[in-house]
């Protein structure tokens, strides 16, 4: 049957019908008073989601574009930065920083393991000359399903006094508590196709007062991603360049849906979905790639011993029209990833787990009792 695709990947994520309907409206002039009112509401609601009174700017980019903006606006060529690398997107930060000539010091962990906050503390406490200008972290490492301990790492950054904290929250914003002001996070980047529940095309970046001070001394050439004009235009409820008008109208609807659910409701739902998915995987005898206590509420990475993860994904897609994400780089074929981010509910997890059980049986895997995965997930939902 056509048009029954079920996205269970970390992005793009499912889009609610009322958001799709908002997206389908006729475009309006981006310099009109009507659009300015929408921008004002969207900006205010973005601050609510980020839990900040500081600037939250909207860019027409992917999450990687927001990451690049986070580099070029706040540091200089030759500056020393600590970059947390324990997956593909931590590695991407390092490549981005190196592309702009930064002095990159990697703080690494094996893919599937969390970053060690004490390693950051050691570097920061040894930096008596205050040469480290920024610490760059991926909060939810999408490639491995690991949630890094941003709160503790940030506490060590704050003790350093000089360095900025720059965060990739692309799959944590809208799924995990990221209290920007309470933690004093300086620069936080995210993307529309994740927890925001709209299609790809928008990037978001929150900027603290301390980061704006660094901006004044940042000299890396920039134009389209120069955040200064975005700040000035945001104060007037407009944008420096032509935005994707309909995406912002869709964002208006999605943010109102999120406000209706409430921050605690959003965070507890994602935690519940993660817990149910992990318990189901264990009940099926499948390995979990992220250790207990460090699983991401956005996505669960499963390492099926003795099975080709790509074969599982293939059966899930062909037989049940459910899209799971595969392993990246050296993990291809070794893991598959179940997204439970954004517009996902308990029913979606039960459907995905039931289909996974059937797919495993079709592939000849008998290391579980039929129904065990669904039962484990249902127990979580019944609590």
Automatic annotation (TrEMBL):
Binding site residues for substrate: 337
Family classification: Belongs to the class-V pyridoxal-phosphate-dependent aminotransferase family.
Domain of life: Bacteria
UniProt KW Transferase keyword: yes
Lineage, highest ranks first: Bacteria, Bacillati, Cyanobacteriota, Cyanophyceae, Synechococcales
Span of domain Aminotransferase class V: 13-328
InterPro entries: Aminotrans_V_dom, Aminotrans_V_PyrdxlP_BS, PyrdxlP-dep_Trfase, PyrdxlP-dep_Trfase_major, PyrdxlP-dep_Trfase_small, SP_NH2Trfase/AEP_transaminase
Cofactors named for this entry: pyridoxal 5'-phosphate
MF GO annotations: alanine-glyoxylate transaminase activity; L-serine-pyruvate transaminase activity
Gene3D superfamilies: Aspartate Aminotransferase, domain 1, Type I PLP-dependent aspartate aminotransferase-like (Major domain)
Protein name: Aminotransferase
The keyword Transferase appears for this protein: yes
GO biological process: glycine biosynthetic process, by transamination of glyoxylate
Keywords recorded for this protein, A-Z: Aminotransferase, Pyridoxal phosphate, Transferase
Organism of this sequence: Merismopedia glauca CCAP 1448/3
């Amino acid at each position: 049957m056509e048009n029954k695709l079920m996205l269970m990947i970390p992005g793009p994520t499912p889009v609610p019908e009322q958001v799709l309907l908002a997206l389908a409206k006729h475009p309006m002039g981006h310099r009109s008073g009507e659009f300015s009112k929408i921008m004002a509401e969207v900006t205010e609601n973005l601050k609510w989601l980020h839990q900040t009174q500081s600037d939250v700017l909207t860019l027409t980019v992917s999450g990687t574009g927001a990451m690049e903006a986070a580099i070029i606006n706040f540091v200089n060529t030759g500056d020393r930065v600590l970059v947390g690398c324990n997956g593909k997107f931590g590695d991407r930060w390092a490549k981005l920083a190196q592309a702009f000539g930064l002095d990159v010091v990697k703080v690494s962990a094996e893919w599937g393991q969390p970053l060690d906050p004490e390693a950051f503390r050691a570097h920061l406490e040894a930096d008596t000359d205050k040469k480290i200008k920024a610490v760059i972290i991926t909060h939810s490492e999408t490639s491995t399903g690991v949630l890094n301990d941003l709160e503790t790492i940030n506490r060590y950054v704050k003790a350093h006094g000089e360095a900025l904290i720059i965060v990739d929250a692309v799959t944590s914003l809208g799924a995990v508590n990221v209290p920007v002001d309470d933690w004093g996070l300086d620069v936080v980047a995210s993307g529309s196709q994740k927890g925001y529940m709209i299609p790809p095309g928008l990037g978001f970046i929150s900027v603290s007062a301390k980061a704006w001070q660094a901006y004044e001394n940042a000299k890396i050439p920039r134009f389209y991603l120069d955040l200064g004009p975005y700040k000035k235009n945001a104060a007037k409820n407009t944008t420096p360049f032509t935005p994707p008008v309909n995406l912002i109208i869709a964002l208006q609807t999605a943010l109102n849906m999120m406000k209706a659910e409430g921050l605690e409701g959003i965070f507890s739902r994602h935690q519940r979905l993660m817990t149910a998915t992990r318990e189901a995987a264990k009940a099926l005898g499948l390995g979990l790639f992220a250790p207990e206590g460090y699983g991401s509420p956005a996505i669960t990475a499963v390492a099926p011993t003795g099975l080709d993860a790509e074969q599982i994904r293939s059966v899930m897609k062909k037989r049940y029209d459910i899209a799971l994400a595969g392993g990246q780089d050296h993990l291809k074929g070794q893991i598959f990833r179940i997204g439970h981010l954004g517009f996902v509910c308990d029913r979606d997890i039960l459907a995905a787990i039931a289909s996974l059980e059937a797919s495993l049986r079709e592939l000849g895997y008998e290391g579980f009792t039929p129904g065990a995965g669904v039962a484990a997930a249902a127990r979580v939902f019944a609590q």
